[in-house]
Amino acid sequence: SAPPAPPSADAGSSSSSSSSAGRFRSSWGAQEAGGGRGGDYLFELGQSDYNTNVDAGQHVGMIDSLFAGNVLGARSDIADGSLRGWEARSLNNIVGDYYIAPQFMDKVAMHITKNYLADQGAISASTKVPLIMGIWGPKGCGKTFQTELAFKKLGVEPIVMSAGELESETAGQPGRLIRERYRKAAELSRTRGKLSCLVINDLDAGIGRFGNTQVTVNNQIVIGTLMNICDDPNRVSIGANWRESDTIKRVPIIVTGNDFSTLYAPLIRDGRMEKFYWQPQREDVVNIVWQMYKEDGLARRDVEALIDTFANQALDFFGALRAATYDGQIRDWMAGVAGAPLHAADASRVKEVNKRLLAQQDLPEFEPVALRLADLISEGQRLVGEQAAVNAGRLGELYMKGVVWGEDGLGGWSGSDDSSGDDELRPPRSLLG
Known about the structure:
By secondary structure, this protein is α/β, with parallel strands linked by helices. 39% of the residues lie in helices and 8% in strands. The longest helix is centred in the last third of the chain and has 21 residues, at 373-393. The protein is globular, with a radius of gyration of 30 Å.
């Protein structure tokens, strides 16, 4: 038989205290105050969330300083978050004064604000607010960078994915990854008090259908996962046991791409995805490029002349053009370290360039070049010549007989047995429409 319970130290203690002492002899068997679901405390803690917030009770304000803080000159408190790697991007790498197109800022801010208001009940539940915003348009027109600038101004810390993560050798892994990242964004918003969202860059490159490209099981799972999250954004399972109380915050999803007509039609319907076609107007292009060049001594009228000279080029062309202005200084530095131009220098001296780059020591700090419009146009014409050489060569046709460029004009391939009449180059589409 069980040993008798020890006598109470206080004869006047309540019967409820005696009952509790008889039922729970340690914290392992105690139930959490407020009820719980019948399991012990550690079981409840482990089942409460897939990503249990362990910050509480593990920093200096909650436990003895011996186990946290700066002890003997060593940082030991990884649980306070200072030594923890967060998956969200703070966008602190964006330094400088950049131009955000007003229309772009309005669209991003509206989408994020509307979804957070819908989650908090400020918008009627009968109103279907699209969870995804698809930003699409011509290549190189600044979709991703403008999105990051808008995030930085709004104080949003996004969880970012790329199209390269939408395929895997394991069936179902990309879909699970999307659900995990979405829950991570929701958890970040709840625990850190930060606006967050899930961003998937170049979605059409990952799950779009171009010509005769193969559709995989993972493509189908990714599409189904995104559609399911749109339909019920507060319940996102990652394969754990279904729990009725397992709800998360609704956080918006933003995707970018070049051609959303290649995506599965039910995914991009209006109830699930709000579509935003981004093709900057001339004024937007002038302001963005002017912001890029204004510290280099170039007048605004020169920037306008440069844009008019290369009107068919995307925004990234002007970024590459500015980066090319440092080529002369870099070439002079390499020749100075090697003692001669690299093609004529001794191999042992060339290794010194290699050594400095790897060790990140004795590296120069280049001054911005005083730019002239004539020099930029000359360099721009060289870049255009390289583009024309790629288009004129079309060496792929030598390796893929009977395959011609897709009629969509977006660089996709489409099968054809007749390549006649396709010898002339298509005229380039203007970025400015």
